[in-house]
Amino acid sequence: NSNARVKLVEVGPRDGLQNEKKAIPLATKLELIERLAKTGLTTIEAGSFVSPKWVPQMDNSSEILQHLLQHPPASPRPLTFSFLAPNLKGLNNAFTVLAQHPDSFATESTTTTSSTSSPSSSPASPPKPALEVAVFAAATETFSRKNLNCDIATSLARFREVIQAAKETHSLRVRAYISVVLGCPFEGFDVDGHRVAEIATALLEMGADEIALGDTTGMGTAPRTKELLNCLSAAGVRNEDIAMHFHDTYGQALVNTAVALEHGIRTFDCSVGGLGGCPYSPGATGNVATEDMVYFMETLGMDTGVDLDAVVDVGDWITREIGKGNASAVGPAVLGA
Ligand code: HMG
Ligand code: MG
C-alpha cells in the first residue's frame, strides 16, 4: 500500500551537529553517516556548504562529500546524500569536489524513483549514491537576515541561481527549505501561511523538487500545522512536493506529524538521538528523534523501511560519542526494556 509508505529524511549529521560548540572529528561524522546508511534510511543530510565563519562545525563538508563519493557506504537501500548550499559560492565548493569524482554519483535522471524496496546490492560494490542540494529560505524577514544576512527577496534570487546551476551542471535534485513557518524566534507566532505558500510556489517554479517546511523553533501546534497545510493546499502546492521538518523544542513534533500525515504528507525529517538546534534560533533544540519517528510510524502501520533497533543503536552510540544526553524517548526505552 503506497499510501502507507513514508520517506524519512535523516538530518542528524547536518542539523544535528551544526550547532555543537566543540569540533566533532571528521571520522566521527563519517562513522555516523555510515552507521545511519545501514539502518534502511535512504536520504541523509550529510553536510552544509555555508560560511565557516557562520557555522564552523560544517567546515569539513567538502571532505565529507569527497569521502562519500570515494567510499560509498554500504546500505540495504539506495542512498541519497543531501548538502545545504545557500549561494553559488557554496554550490561551487561542492562542484569542486564533484569535478574530481565525476562518475561517482548517480543523478536524478539515473536513479529510479521507487526507493523503497529495491534489492540490496553486493556489499563489495555499493551502488553510486545520488546527491541533492538544499537551499534554505525563511518565512520572516528577520529570520532571513539573521540566518542568511539578506532579505527574503534577495535570498530567492540567489536560490534561483543555485537551483539552475545544480540542475544544469549535474542534474541534481534540489530541496528547498522554508524556515520558521510555524513561529519565529524574532517575530513570534505571527507567521503568515499565505506568505509561506507564496515562497513555496516561487521555489517550485524555480525548479525545486521539494519544499521542506521548517518548524525551526518547535513553536508549531496541531491546529496551526493544519492551518498552514490548508493554506498550501489552497495555493495549489501538492502534498507530494512537501516535507515536514519539525523541531521538538516544545514536545509537539509527533502531534504535528500526525496532523501532517492526516493531511496527506508522506515525507518527514528527523535526527537520530534528537540531536540538534539551529545556531540562528536561540534555544531551539533538535529535530524530532529518528527513533521516535520510526516507532510512531510503525505503531500507525506506516512503512518507513527503517530498522528501529538499528537506529536506536546509532542514537545511543552518537550521543555517547559527542557527550550529549539522548533526546529520543524511544531509544533509551528500547535499550532499557
Ligand atoms: P555574507 O557574510 O553575507 O556573505 O553571508 P558574503 O557573500 O558577503 O561573503 C562574505 C564572505 O563569506 C566571503 O569571504 C565569501 O567568500 C564567504 P571573504 O571574502 O570575506 O573571505 N562566503 C562563503 N564561504 C563558504 N561558503 C559559502 C560562502 N558564502 C560566502 N557558501 C551567507 C551570507 C549565506 C554565506 C551566510 O549568512 C551563511 O553562511 N549563512 C548560513 C547560516 C546557516 O548555515 N544556518 C543554519 C542552516 S539553516 C537551518 O538550520 C534551518 C533548517 O534546518 C530548517 C529549519 O529548521 O527551519 C534548514
Ligand atoms: Mg532545522
From TrEMBL:
It catalyses: (3S)-3-hydroxy-3-methylglutaryl-CoA = acetoacetate + acetyl-CoA. Residues 6-312 form the Pyruvate carboxyltransferase domain. One of its GO terms (molecular function) is metal ion binding. It is an enzyme of class 4 (lyase). SUPFAM superfamilies: Aldolase (SSF51569). Transmembrane segments: none annotated. This is hydroxymethylglutaryl-CoA lyase. It comes from Thermothielavioides terrestris (strain ATCC 38088 / NRRL 8126).
